[in-house]
Amino acid sequence: MTKKQKLVADFNSKYEIGDKVKIKLDDGTLKEVTIEYEAQLLGGHTPIGWFKEIGGCYLLNRVQS
Hints:
Elements: H1 3-14, E1 20-24, E2 30-42, E3 46-51, E4 57-59, E5 63-64
Antiparallel strand pairs: 1-2, 1-5, 2-3, 3-4
């Protein structure tokens, strides 16, 4: 398992769909969001999560519990 695959697996084992987490946005502010789908490797190389309050996906390294 690669480091990126482990990041996705760890995220999915720690959080469930519907859980709330905080995301660090591009401007540095934190936004509370709800997990909409399981995390995945986008294109097989980028660990991302899907959140209801954000259009599209966001990098998992921006998630704070």
